[in-house]
Amino acid sequence: MRWLLPEHIDDILPAEAARIEALRRALLDRFAAHGYELVMPPLLEYVESLLTGTGHDLDLRTFKLVDQLSGRMMGVRADITPQVARIDAHLLNRSGVTRLCYCGSVLHARPATLTATREPIQIGAEIYGHAGVASDLESLGMLCGALRLARVRGARVDIGHVAVFRALVRATALGAEAEAELFEALQKKDLPALVVLTRGLKKPARDALLALPELYGGAEVLARAAKRLPRLPQLVRALATLRRLARACTIPASFDLAELRGYHYHSGVVFDAYCDGVAGPVARGGRYDDVGKAFGRARAATGFSIDLRELAAAGSLRPSRVGYKAK
User: Fold this and answer.
1) DSSP state of 319
2) Residue 210 — left, alpha, or beta (φ > 0 → left; ψ -120 to 50 → alpha)?
3) Residue 180: φ, ψ to 5°
4) Which residues pair with 161 in a beta bridge?
5) Domain housing 107
6) CA distance from start to end of the chain
7) Looking at the structure, do residues 181 and 147 belong to the same domain, yes or no?
8) Which of 44, 95, 134, 193 could form a disulfide with 185 if both were Cys (CB 3.0 to 4.6 A apart)?
9) Residue 64 belongs to domain with CATH number
């Protein structure tokens, strides 16, 4: 039938649209109340700008087309975060701390899961120009507040720090190929592969890398990690940051020191938020200090993004509670 939509692309009907719009307004109002300025990046950009510093995964998720005006390759954004980093680094060009927020549709060439839409609505908030743990705490606190505002059930957050693995790898002076193999094994929690890959390393480094998949659970994991991992300066700082987040988090939190999502994109803390009724993470965030370099200005950066459609479907916030009703 000619009017059928492509797979994993759906219309949003009145009741769902009202819930999404009510939550969008409530979240953007909350962000604005905390000093976050709204930006609206374009749906299309040249591919090299869209994919700067984001790694292979986002490249595979991006629809690409040739611009008939310039002949250059363009992409439909699959993630708004790199665009906001470009705005901060290249257009605003401020010297101090900048807080920005956004909301808009993104398009994925491949659905994230078997049931996911390929056109999520992404809403998020970012802090630029502050490298300390205070901005990580603020970002995580804003996310927890957003989950409470949406009235979701079973809200929880899983927190990691890419500097733990990075510090161990640098201490062993492994080459890029060996690092990539270890990264792959840790992502899969493949302990037999890790045993083989670390066979030639000295015992302290080998024991530490083999311990990472076991360092998962509540805040008590951080104390175990401090005993089992070497006292490398970067690693010690990472654990101190995670302890601060554990004390400040206002929803149940777990810690996974083998979590390497966005390893080539993130530079510090990473976190995923979950809630009842959503199969995968409903929000993702973390620190990504290096992305601005490609836009001519390296800036410390941390933030998060939420799948607004999933959050609205899982939450119990209703339009009437924020002054919006579907007719």
Assistant:
1) G
2) alpha
3) -65, -40
4) 269
5) 7-155+275-318
6) 30
7) no
8) 193
9) 3.30.930.10
